[in-house]
Design goal:
The structure holds 2 protein chains of 2 kinds. Chain A is α/β, with parallel strands linked by helices. Chain A folds into 2 domains: 5-299, Rossmann fold (3-Layer(aba) Sandwich); 396-478, no CATH class. Helices cover 52% and strands 11% of the residues of chain A. In chain A, β5 and β6 form a beta hairpin. The longest helix of chain B has 17 residues, at 189-205. Chain B is of the alpha/beta class. Chain B has a 4-stranded parallel beta sheet, sandwiched between helices. Chain B has a 4-stranded parallel beta sheet with strand order 6-5-7-8, sandwiched between helices. In chain B, β7, α12 (216-228) and β8 (235-238) form a beta-alpha-beta unit. Classes of the chains: A alpha/beta, B alpha/beta.
């Protein structure tokens, strides 16, 4: 997917002005946040996430070993494991597989890595029809290949009315408004595609080294149709998604669905191992794993390594005050919200995503809810350090910081400046104590009043106060005569 | 408490209290002295360095942190009337000093004795009553750093509940960020404003006469937005002011 993160500021303005989007985004907190809080009461969240951190760290610390073991085990089960250095290479591999097996139609279940790869576009160019079968992704695909705005709820930015209109227009059928009816209509559209597709592409929430399996967590059952019906099954996922053992997966599963949608368990959890063996009723004849690096090894051994623990639950964006106001599209690449603000600069280049590390209040809620305790605010701050060091911030900001730092390191100068600023602000505030516009602080005063200081600086007043106190003390020390 | 056993407390005033709301500094002194402390305001205070740290200017942040550390050594306790600045010193200085074992050790030596004001009054001094009288109906906003970095949540409420005549009405999403975020409020003012509107709405919905909080950034943000929206009635007060009797 092409990076659009450089248009962040312009997009944010549009998103804030979009009343319909604002209404739709409210569902995030109403639905996911509340449900997650409730679901976490069922388990010991802190203990479980400590275990999850430990297990994910074990996987990432020895990534090469587990990937080799996975390759060995999956190959023993009849699968072919391919590694791609970057997203484009991964796309090529999938296209080649499709060509090799003379595939015309590909059914897809949800995969964010396939978004990184811009896989649908690559398949189309090769004359293969990709069909998204996750309901949300299907809606986006028929809406002129719109990008998802959330990693779990890709269509959270749309309401039912918009989808009704879209279905009526694209399906050329009478407009329906009932959700079960709309879903049925989508199923009817998808069924013939399921039946004719020669290849299914799915993501993989995890791949399990000890068994060579892939774990896929879904709610709609479409994944089964993509993996059981076609001859060929291709799993695309990131190399960091490996887990050493099935027991590791059990720990992750306890946290993943609860963090994502607030479900104790999702409707479907599939553990798929190997090709159809002799005597087995179903399963693909050919099974491929395309494991994508796409910038991930660049994080290994760096101060951003902890990001590789991410299990793509989306809790950080659901709880992010900024995401809640602007939605996912403004972030401009595959992954939005706090995790996206770390991943986009890391995978697509810091210079292409200058706003993302900055566009956070660092409130810390993403860290608090993260099931694998990724210190997202710290990582955003470290990206800011890189921006600062590489001179990727505006000159005006650098200069202001320098001047402020210069003064703050010189208490006498600082006291002089704050004394003047204090007097200026009080004068400007007048009797109301409110300042409606200020030079160099237009961003603030465009939306808020600046409240004037309530008196002289503390430093000045304290000096007077102490002098008085000393006087009184010396007076009392004399005592009664 | 006798003079000999009075804990010597360094008050780290913070730059925003110094410049914008000096009364809060005096309210903090009043509360600490009421609790039997000898309060010292270490001289030459400027800023803890958080703006530089959050802007990615690690070098300036480090230089300021070194100065602040030196100012705050040698006391029984360090108390800060701001969760954000206390969090910076207690939590983030450790990161800044990570490559300097000497500074790191000096920080470790005082770290467990650095407190956010309400945490100190409640958990260390265990104040059972308060010097001031405040009455009315308030709602409490949890500021992000105090809440999430230092666990300040029950302490201010417990203290406020000790004030007869004061009623706390919890707002919806009291723990949610107000949208300040330091320079975020300037750089992404439109997003910040949309976030603070949620907060302002939740405050107003409680019908309280004041919103009480523990951090200056949130205070200026929320008050500035309330006034801009034409609400001149809802007071915005620092918890120290209320505990010292300003409501």
């Amino acid at each position: 997917m092409q990076v659009q993160s450089m248009h962040f500021q312009a997009r944010v303005g549009e998103k804030l002005a979009d009343a319909r989007l604002q209404k739709n985004l409210k569902r995030l907190s109403e639905k996911f946040v509340t449900a997650r809080t409730q679901a976490m009461t069922e388990i010991d969240f802190e203990a479980t996430r400590d275990a999850a951190v430990e297990r994910r760290n074990r996987a990432i610390d020895n990534l090469d070993i587990w990937l080799e073991l996975f390759e060995k085990k999956a190959t023993e089960q009849g699968a072919k494991v391919l590694f791609a250095e970057n997203a484009a290479q991964a796309s090529d591999l999938v296209v080649q597989i499709a060509k090799k097996h003379k595939v015309k139609t590909v059914t897809k279940s949800k995969s964010m890595v396939s978004e990184e790869m811009a896989l649908n576009e690559a398949l189309r160019q090769a004359g293969v029809e990709p069909v998204e079968t996750d309901l949300g992704e299907y809606i986006l695909q028929i809406n002129d290949n719109e990008a998802p705005s959330h990693i779990i709820a890709p269509v959270i930015h749309k309401d039912k009315e918009e989808i009704s209109d879209l279905f009526a227009r694209v399906h050329e059928k009478p407009r329906l408004t009932d959700i079960p009816q709309l879903t049925r209509e989508a199923r009817e559209e998808l069924r013939p595609k399921f039946l004719k597709a020669e290849m299914g592409v799915t993501g993989g929430n995890f791949v399990i080294a000890e068994t060579g399996s892939v774990a896929i967590v879904t709610n709609e059952g479409n994944e089964g149709m993509c993996t059981i019906l076609p001859r060929v099954h291709v799993v695309v996922t990131g190399i960091e998604k490996v887990l050493p053992t099935l027991e590791d997966f059990a720990t992750m599963a306890r946290l993943l669905t609860r963090s994502a949608t607030g479900q104790s368990v999702s409707n479907y959890i599939s553990l798929l191992t190997g090709t159809k063996a002799k005597g087995e009723p179903d399963g693909p004849t050919y099974l491929y794993f395309v494991l994508v690096d796409g910038g991930r090894t660049g994080l290994l051994g760096s101060e951003f390594q902890e990001m590789l623990r991410c299990i793509r639950c989306g809790a950080c964006m659901n709880h992010c005050p900024v995401y809640q106001k602007i939605g996912g599209h403004a972030y401009g690449w595959v992954y939005p919200g706090p995790m996206g603000s770390v991943l986009t600069p890391s995978y697509a280049g810091l210079e292409n995503a200058l706003d993302l590390p900055q566009a956070a209040t660092l409130c810390g809620e993403c860290h608090v809810v993260c099931p694998v305790k990724i210190p997202l605010p710290d990582l955003l701050r470290k990206l800011r350090e890189r921006q600062f060091d590489r001179h990727l911030r505006p000159l005006r900001e650098r200069w202001a910081l320098w001047a402020w730092g210069f003064a703050a390191l010189r208490p006498n100068l600082y006291r002089l400046i704050t004394g003047v600023a204090n007097r200026f602000l009080r004068l400007r505030g007048g009797r109301s104590g409110r300042i409606a516009s200020l030079p160099f602080a237009g961003g603030w005063t465009h939306y808020r009043d600046m409240m004037a200081p309530s008196g002289k600086t503390f430093t000045d007043r304290y000096a007077v106060w102490q002098a008085k106190k000393a006087f009184v003390r010396s007076d009392t020390r004399v005592g009664p005569r | 408490m006798t003079a000999e056993s009075s804990p010597r407390v360094a008050l780290y005033v913070t730059c925003l209290v110094d410049l914008m709301r000096p009364d809060i500094g005096f309210a903090a002194i009043k509360l600490l002295e009421f609790g039997g402390c000898e309060v010292i305001v270490p001289p030459e205070q400027t800023c803890c360095g958080q703006p530089a740290f959050n802007a990615g200017d690690r070098r300036t942040a480090h230089r300021l942190a070194e100065r602040v550390l030196a100012q705050l050594e040698g006391y029984d306790y360090v108390v800060v009337p701001s969760g954000s600045c206390a969090g910076m010193i207690k939590v983030h200085y450790a990161d800044l000093f990570s490559d300097d074992p000497g500074l790191k050790q000096r920080l470790t030596d005082i770290s467990s004795r650095i407190y956010e004001l309400t945490d100190f009054l409640h958990s260390v001094l265990k104040l059972e009553n308060l010097p001031g009288r405040s009455a009315g109906c308030i709602t409490y906003h949890d500021s992000c750093s105090g809440l999430r970095e230092l666990g300040v949540c029950d302490q201010p409420r417990a203290l406020l509940q000790k004030m007869p005549g004061l009623e706390i009405r919890e707002m919806k999403d009291a723990r949610a960020c107000c949208g300040f975020g330091g320079t975020f409020a300037l750089k992404y003012a439109n997003v910040s404003s949309a976030i603070v509107d949620e907060k302002v709405g939740n405050i107003q919905a409680t019908g309280s006469q004041a919103v009480v909080l523990g951090d200056l950034g949130c205070m200026l943000n929320i008050e500035g937005r309330l006034r801009r929206l034409g609400d001149h009635k809802t007071q915005v007060l620092h918890v120290a002011q209320v505990l010292a009797g300003d409501l």
